[in-house]
Amino acid sequence: MNSKSLSCEQVRRVDQIAIDEYGIPGIVLMENAGRGAAEKIHGVAPPGLITILCGKGNNGGDGYVIARHLELLGRSIQIVSTCEISDLSGDAKTNAEIAARSDIPIQKVDESSRLQLILDPAATIVDGLLGTGSKPPLRGMYADLVRAANNQPCMRIALDIPTGMNADTGEAIDPTFIADHTITFVAPKTGFASPNASKHIGQVHVVSIGVPSKLLRSIG
Ligand SMILES: NC(=O)C1=CN([C@@H]2O[C@H](COP(=O)(O)OP(=O)(O)OC[C@H]3O[C@@H](n4cnc5c(N)ncnc54)[C@H](O)[C@@H]3O)[C@@H](O)[C@H]2O)[C@@H](O)CC1
Ligand SMILES: [K+]
User: Fold this and answer.
1) What integer pLDDT is reported at residue 3 of this predicted model?
2) Which residues are the signal sequence here (predicted)?
3) pTM for the complete prediction?
């Protein structure tokens, strides 16, 4: 486990080297990330519905893995997705297809007017919208979903990075997800130490994705 901060680019390099040079399949890294995050979420989320917001990248892919593991832990889950499963690719698509076959409720949102209604029943909202591939400011449905989530009187948990934040600097242009907890993968991101970030990250938990210590030592 790494507690030294890394930039988004460094963490993305860790993922890539783990896949290309160590031969760990990306889907194994995603399973480790999602399973570890689900266990943390189960430990902090109050009783009641957990609504997982899934974007179209691998941050959303983590969300589909988490849904499967939280269901196994006895939690009620719904997934709210920004796109159809057919618009996903790679490991995110594989995990979304598994969730769909498992009858985990998934609804795609395309109308901003219905967001508040969809999010209302949630006791906890998990933000799997965007991770290290995000380029703020947020566009379209991502901005509307983050605004609607921030208005809900519930617990909010961010996966890897609160969506909307520049995790290298901590800059949080409005709207940026306001998390009570941030479950971040591999290492805290450099921007989390910035005073700008403190309102948005809440308590930070670092989850290992199973890359070897040797690789972590070689980065940064
Ligand atoms: N193998 C891996 O690389 C792993 C990745 N993991 C997860 O994957 C994440 C990174 O995944 P991705 O590289 O797919 O990136 P993201 O999941 O951050 O998504 C990138 C997508 O979002 C869109 N986007 C970027 N900025 C936007 C904006 N401002 N408004 C609207 N859309 C925007 C881009 O067009 C792109 O399609 C990590 O943060 C982590 O959660 C983990 O599953 C561990 C393993
Ligand atoms: K996120």
Assistant:
1) 74
2) none
3) 0.98
